[in-house]
What does this fold into?
Amino acid sequence: VKKRSVTVAAVDVEALEREAQGAVTAAATLDDLEEARVRYLGRKSDLKQALRGVRDRDSGMALNAARERLEASFDARQAELERAQLAQLDEALDVTLPGTRLTRGRLHPLTQLTREIEDIFLGLGYEIIDSREVETVWHNFDALNQPLTHPSRSHRDTFYLDEQTLLRTHTSTGQIRVMESRKPPIYIASLGRVYRRDTPSPRSTPNFHQVEALAVDRNITLADLKGTLMHFFRALFPGDRQVRMRTSFFPFTEPSVEFDVTCFLCAGEGCAFCKHTGWFEMGGAGVVDPAVFENVGYDPEGWSGFAWGLGIDRIAAQRHGIPDIRMFWENDLRVLRQFG
Amino acid sequence: MKVPMSWLREYVPVTVPTRELAERLVISTCEVDGIETRGVTDVDGNLALFRVGRVLEAAKHPNADRLQLCQVDIGEGDARQIVCGAWNFGAGATVAVALPGAVLPNGLQLEQREVRGQLSDGMILAEDEVGLGTDHAGIMVLENGIEPGTPLVDVLPLTEEVLELETGHNRPDLLAVYGIARDVAALYDLELAPPPGSDPARAADEPVDVQIEDYEGCPRYIGRLFRDAKIQPSPVWLKARLLAAGMRPISNVVDVTNYVMLALGNPLHAFDFAKLAGGRIVVRGAKPGEKLRTLDGVDRDLEPYDLMIADGERSVALAGIMGGEETEIGRETSDILLEAANFEPYTIFRTSERLRLRTEGSNRWEKGVDPYLAEQSAKLATALIVQLADARWTGDTDVHEQLPDRPVVQFRPEKTDAVIGLETPAEQQYAILRRLGLDVNGDVVVPTWRARDVTREIDVVEEVARFRLDEVPARLPTREAMFGRLSKLQRIRRKLQDTLVAFGYVETYSWSLLPDDPDPKASRLQEPLSSEQAVLRTSLLHGLLSSARRNVDAGNEDVALFEVAHVYLPSGEQLPEERLHVGGIAQGGFAAAKGAVEGLYEALGVEPSFEPVDRSAHTPEGWVRALREPDLPGQWGAFELDVEAVADRVPEVVVYEDVITYPPVRQDLAFAVDENVTAGELVAAAQSAAGPELRDMRAFDVYRGEQVGAGRKSIAFSVAFQSPDRTLTDGDAAELRSRIVQVLEQEFGAELRA
It folds into this structure.
């Protein structure tokens, strides 16, 4: 069938389409293209006016087909121009300019270390215990086998609310409360605030934080304590940490030891930080004293356990090189924001 | 406890280098704070430059009235000429000389020099110049007969290494050089010398009147009487030992009591016998209203439970803690009553604690001193007083009731293995125990000096364990159950912290103790360190405000702070109620703070509700408010929530809700209401009128102006209608909307604007 030129209402469709296609090709910018679109496909364009005036099917179909082809061309050209523009923008993008700043807060460095410690304990299969801070003399001293003459009971060292009530001096209180309320086996780490009547100084504050671990099970030995310490500190500090135990005295453990970990500055070579011993003093530990088990109603012949603890603030300060432990309580954003 | 090595070696022949000994002690006996080298340093032949000399000639310096010009034989053939400023010697005296090149303990290096035109080729030494005493009144005159040229170190303890030990509360036996020697002997399997001191012959048999009224507080009192004592400075060896052990020499008799305490561990006291009324000693509780001026010049108010040493009339010493000023040994004293007693720990502790008076004596008594030690201590002191004060020992009494027997402990060597996790053959265990003075014959019999500390099988186990600590292997417990999981509250705490951090809040830590608390019943300390930290807080707000102020003062920007911590609420019982709270403070006023609270509730999946109270909004678990603080410029808001209370409402699991199949119909509705009507009231009324199909109704704009008239405001809400089981039609939405419009009009006179 020979294509006939259709003329509707004095419009040469073919010529119009040709002209419009030419304008599409010629449009160099999105603005040019939009201008052409208004001219050839807008409400007042010849094509639209012709479509409004159409009376017969053939010319209607021809006009519509032309409109569809033109719209497709416009869209295709628009996509092409947009791609080109994006490419241009990419070229103009200075990727070294800062991004839009989002406000983000910070966890306190003590929380960050506390969480790390908690997570290591969770990995070792321990529960985390939060216990009350205002305590009875029983939970803080008596149940822990603390002799009446122990200096820590003194009003100079401990904050009392009355003769029977005090601010806990260690997190061991949480261990007593757990043992009073359930039967072994027990694997817990008790973390939180403790209080000692120390005048604030670069090395001590009257509030600070401790973690104390307790394991009670069948056949727990000093060797289990040593292994647990070793794995804990290898998780906390990178490297091949060794643990050394030294004899000590705590009323609630027998035997009692203090434990040192390979110095984390010199890796055991000996430096000023570890007083040239190669060891860093970490905390106290021991095998749970049978008197403590008797105080909480456990049979000391059937169960055995170990306990160990350390101060969190001191380790956080040393780890981050913070010269004065009181800075943890000053809450200066210039300090806190350093700990991402 | 400072232990001079030369003193230690008097009791045990330990030859390992001091550093090595320290390392062994650290593992098995006690902490070692350090090794102090005192006196003349022993490097580069320095010690050899200190010699014994004999003064051949001594005459006034030709050009200086106050100086002597001496010729001193130091065994070199030719005498050396030395200029000296002291006059307490003359020709023939045996003296201590330092030669040119010698370095004194204070770092000064001697050299040959001219003094007023005369060559001085060395220095004649005073005791303070070589750390052997504090006296600088004259030079040291040594006993005659020592060959000139003898190295001085052979005659005087010129150089000394001192172990600085920190001993455990359970080991009062280690607060004595002899006690340390006993542990060292056991560690190295060396022979221990017998305890020092034996009684000289007694010169007379005078009665000594000692009466104990409180045997519980004072189980034993040995009183010894001495006549015609000459109070004078101690000899150099004694001064040197006291100084090295950290005590100042005073005079011979007082120095002897201190020396014996350091040697054996039993604190002693010496009274001026002439000043004891009736020549008596009575050990009793203080009388009501009684006072005593102690040696330090302080008047002490006494309580009836204070154990006193009294004479026939009044108290003369705080037993075991400090002597009284009136009966103190002085230059004029000639008759002495020596006290070698034993006091009960808690009695001493209680008084020393109340009086805030801690002394070398109280420190030992409160740890528990072996009552059998009094006798040995009396012997050593007696021998030294007779020798050094040229006194006559004329009377002796030993008052005590039955002294405690040595503890007998049942001991199973296999128990040691079970505790340590390391096998130690029974014979090896017994050998260790015997070296420590424990008798092993089936049961274990504990020596008196360990009777307080070793009373149970586990205590015996520890004695073996401490010898093997460095051999303990590293193992892990064999487990039958595992529990490694955070509790619900712990997980919620972390989520709250993380959410606030995401909102831009920085976490703070504040003291639990405040100067005061708005709640008058808040728990108060008996003895606060300062008035700044006296009361336990019932809210986190105070700490947050201080932190905010500090940051504003420092010029820090974007201040948004939070804390998660306990508060301590009065409960009417012994222990306050402790609750875990989260609190925050931020720039941006009320809306910023409330946004954070809403975000926290959303993070936990809990629907908040806010009740206006004064100018704050209260939720069931806390509050949000705008802050009006003169020192916090700009708009600030704060909030505080009880985490445990919110946690109770946190669902265990999130249950899926279908909001996709039947999409919501959204509309904006604006109502004009009187100023006093709140958005919250409108939402609550709308919710109850429309029911659950009103899924969400949120105020997004408040308009005041001409169009709504004075005293009125228009609140615009974005509303979503949605049903979980069908698509709501336009008709359904119109119906819901008209119910809302109706109820708001009825209840609040609300007028729908759009």
